[in-house]
Amino acid sequence: MKNEKEFREAVYEKARRYEQKRKQARRRIIEAISLCSVCVAIGVSAWLILPHTDMSISENYPLTTESADNASKTETTTSDDQNQYSFQEGEESPQASLTTVTSAVPSSSADTATTTDATFLTTAANTTDFTDFTDLPLTGSAFDTSFLYDIIEDPENSNPHYMTPDLTFTLSHTPATRRGLFIVKNTEELRELMQNYDDTLSEFDQRELFSTYDTDFFGSNALVIVVRYMRYAGYSVYFKSDGATAFESMGRELPFSAQEFHTYSVPIAHYDEWNVLQYRID
Amino acid sequence: MEKDLGALYYSRFLDGDERGFDEILRLYHDGLIFFINRLVNNYATAEDLAADTFMELLVHKKRYAFKSSFKTYLFSIARHKAIDHIRRESRYTMLSHDAPEAAELADFETLEDTVLQNDERRRLRRLIGTLHEDYATYLHLFYFEELTLEETAKVMRKTKKQMANIAYRAKNALEEAMRKEGMSI
Fold this sequence. Notes:
- By secondary structure, chain A is an alpha+beta fold.
- Chain A has 7 helices and 9 strands.
- Helix content of chain B is 74%, strand content 0%.
- Chain B has 9 helices and no strands.
């Protein structure tokens, strides 16, 4: 049994040890918090400093003439099957717009075919400026098909890959609903266009489309959308820069029941350097 | 009154007068150890736990709000410490008729003399030790520490109603035990 003084000292000693433990515990907590803060700061700094992955589906890479020979041929129907393009029956208006576009070679899909033609490549490009239809409403009758027909040079050319200095614009007569080539420059235009495909493009695919091609994307790109009817053979869109490279690009295919959407990202920085030379949809 | 003194001394201590704490030690040392010993049945442990109890007054100065009696506050800490100790040691001790361990017998008897002061109270303590834990705790606090029903409820963390029930049954049980011992009620 402790006497009064010993007991008092024991109490104060316990209190001193308790305070020491509490300080140590507090110090450990502060150290842990500081470490966490440092880690968070490093993580945030790294995230800010490091370049972010480009989420755009499309990649822009023009084929050079050197790589042209490596391109595979596109699968197309013969020109005999080609007729003057006639837009679908009914009230739907042609919604294709052709304009100068920049190089756009997105990631290829399974049936992508790129091709170049030596003849073509050596041909001096006769660039033709087209009216930029994208400023016009995508619906309605703003599109002037006669303009395109005027520039069709040789629709009976058997070589589907033959490039002329002028625009070759042929479309299969095979009826297809709402097919065509569209160029959109912002999300509103995209939504307007997609409204015409509400019954064929699933909600999921539409969401995917809108999330991929958002405001950020349109800040530096335009989007070319080729809509074709699934069952038909391939299509081709040729882009050629002024005196340089030609390529065909195919976009990402969105699976749905009746139609295929192929999208191409076109950097608007080079918008004026490119022309659509051939637009054929089967 | 004693409980007023405890609060008074503690108030002085909080104002910086260390003698206030010394007075608290003097006032409650024996009774606290005695109370704890009844729970843990080991004098050395009871003394250590009492020191832990007083230590709480030093390190957690803001916890006592001067709303209840100081004694109530102190004994509730002590009971909590004792129960924690019992749980840690994985044993629940009922105060029995057995005497403390031989090595501590002298210390305990000294303490007992101090707290109980007479034979009658010693016998009472032994009888209380034979009863149910809650009854014994209540009776100890009531008879030896002179806490009210409300104060014992706070120490034992019971509601007033629960405490009233315990008090009623405890007194009945004690009367029965005293009758058996031939003690006058």
